[in-house]
C-alpha cells in the first residue's frame, strides 16, 4: 500500500489532520520515512529506536473478514505508560447494568441540556441518559449527552469497556488520538475503538453533543441486500487519520474507563507517541451529509432500517446489538401514503436525538440538542399535529431540507439513569401525547 505522510510531523503535536479514505481497509501510514518495517510486523530492532506493539480489537482467531488489529510503532509501549492507578469519581457517567430508578413505561422526551459555565472537559461533561445490556458481557450500549467547555490539557483517556461514537450537535471537537488527529463538527461523527487513547480539544466555542458506548461487536457497515452495491453509506467516505505523534516529556494524566469505573495515573510523557502504524483497527470519521438515502418511490412508508449508517451485529443474524440510524435531507414522493413514520410497537428500543432542523414526525417540542426514548414494545408514533398535517396535505413531491435526526437503536431495553429522570429538562407531559389524537371512526362512512 501507499505510505501516506502527514502534512507536518507532529513532534510536539503540531500536525494538521490528514486522512485516508475507506471503511475497514488495511491502512499503513508513517510520520517519519522508513518508520514502518517492510515485510514483517515486529523486527528485532525497529527504525528510530521505536517499539512495536499490537492493538487487537477482536480475538486472534476471529475469521479474516472480522479480524481487527493494528501494529503501532511508538516511542514507548503502553506498558511503559503504566503507573499506580487510583479510582476517581465517574461523575454522571454510568455503565450497564444500571438500575438507579424506575420510570413509567411511556415515551420520554427531554429539552436540550444547557451548557454550563464551569470548566468541564469532554470526560467530565459526560452525562449518561440510558444504559442497556451488560458491559461485562460485551453486549448492549449506553447513550449519553456531553457538554464540554474546555480542552483536555496534559490529559488523555481511553475506554476499555466500549467503542465510542461521538455525534456533535453544537461546537466542534478535535480528537488527538494515537493514530492521528480527527476534527469533527455538527453533521459529522467519529468512532474511537475501545483501547485507543485520545485527547479531546475544543477548537472554538463550548461543545455539546451525543455519545454512544458500544459494548458489543464493532460498528460496521450494514448489508445492503436487494439495494445492491450502491447508496446508503459508502466506504470511500469514511476517513481514517494519518500518523501524527507527540514526542513530549511532560507530566500527563491518563484516565482509563474499565469495568464501569474510572481510573487515573500520572505519566511522565505523552502516550500519543505512535510514529507509524498499519492495520484495520483505527478511529475514523464520517460526514453524515454524504449518506445516500433510499426510499419508496410509489407508495407506502419503508422501515427506518433503510437509514442505517452503521450497525453493531449480535449473535442473532439480522438483530442488531446497536443500529446507528439517521434521518437526513430527502425527497418524499410516495402516492396515497402516510409519509411520516407510522404508529408502531417493535422489539428495538430507540434513543433519538436531533442535530439540527426539524423532525417531520414531531414538529413541535423536539428541538436540536433534545432527545427522546421510546422503549421496546411500547407504542409510539407521530403527534397530533404531524398526523393531521400528513393526513390532509396534498401529496406532491416534497423535499425535507436542513434536517438531521438520528437514533441509537438496540435490541435491549434502555434503562434511564437517575440523572436523566430528575433533569428539569424532561418534558413531563410528553408520555401522554397520544391522548390528544382524535377519534375519526364513522361506521356509516367508508370513504377516507
Quick rundown:
The chain has about 450 residues and is mostly beta strands.
> Biggest β-sheet, characterized?
9 strands, antiparallel
Number of strands: 28
Physical arrangement of strands within the biggest beta sheet: 1-16-20-13-10-15-8-7-28
Mean pLDDT value? 93
Q: Which class of secondary structure composition applies to the elements?
A: mainly beta
The span between the termini is 62 Å
CATH superfamily of the largest domain: Jelly Rolls
CATH topology of the largest domain: Jelly Rolls
CATH architecture of the largest domain: Sandwich
Keywords:
single chain, 448 residues, mainly beta, Jelly Rolls, 2 domains, 6-stranded antiparallel beta sheet, Homogentisate 1,2-dioxygenase, HgmA_N, iron, dioxygenase, iron ion binding
